[in-house]
């Protein structure tokens, strides 16, 4: 699905919420789980995102598997031969 084919900002789809769809790209070969939040300027290609996951702004995912209840911090790029982020992981935030 290309950003131009998506509805208005902050649209709740059947399974997830996408903010700023005009600036985001979700490829047809990607799967987004139930109750996810995807912020603006996000690119998700050939990836699977688990349920209840938050993808912050300016994130690029390519060939990734993100498990349930994970959070990917703003500005991160995850590429590679099947990058894997486990359940309940907060990736990209300092404590």
Strand neighbour order, sheet with most strands: 1-2-5-8-11-14
Q: Please give the domain count.
A: 1
What's the CATH C level? Mainly Beta
| Termini separation | 35 Å
- CATH architect. name: 3 Solenoid
Average residue-wise pLDDT: 78
Helix content: under 10%
Oligomer category? single chain
Backbone structural class: mainly beta
Pick out the low-confidence regions.
Answer: 1-10
Question: What shape does the CA trace take?
Answer: globular
Proportion of residues in β-strands: 35-45%
GO cellular component, one term: cytosol
Pfam families: Hexapep_GlmU
Subcellular location: Cytoplasm, Cytosol
Main location: cytoplasm
General description of the model:
With 95 residues, the chain is mostly beta strands. The protein has a single domain (3-91), classed as 3 Solenoid (UDP N-Acetylglucosamine Acyltransferase, domain 1), CATH 2.160.10. The chain contains no helices and 14 strands. It has strands spanning 11-12, 16-18, 25-26, 31-32, 36-38, 43-45, 48-49, 54-55, 60-62, 64-66, 71-72, 77-78, 83-85, 90-91. The strands form three sheets. It has a six-stranded mixed sheet with strand order 1-2-5-8-11-14, with no helix packed on it. It has a four-stranded parallel sheet with strand order 3-6-9-12, with no helix packed on it. It has a four-stranded parallel sheet with strand order 4-7-10-13, with no helix packed on it. The termini are far apart. 22% of the residues are buried. The model is unreliable at 1-10 (pLDDT under 50). It is found in: Cytoplasm, Cytosol. InterPro entries: eIF2B_gamma, GlmU/GlgC-like_hexapep, Trimer_LpxA-like_sf. Keywords: Cytoplasm, Initiation factor, Protein biosynthesis. Pfam families: Hexapep_GlmU. GO terms for molecular function: guanyl-nucleotide exchange factor activity; translation initiation factor activity.
């Amino acid at each position: 699905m290309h950003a131009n084919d998506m509805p208005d900002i902050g649209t709740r789809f059947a399974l997830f919420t996408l903010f700023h769809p005009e600036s985001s790209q979700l490829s047809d070969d990607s799967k987004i789980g139930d109750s996810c939040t995807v912020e603006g300027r996000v690119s998700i290609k050939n990836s699977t995102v688990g349920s209840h996951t938050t993808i912050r702004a300016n994130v690029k995912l390519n060939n990734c598997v993100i498990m349930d209840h994970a959070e990917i911090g703003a500005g991160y790029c995850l590429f590679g031969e099947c990058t894997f982020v486990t359940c309940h992981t907060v990736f990209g935030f300092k404590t």
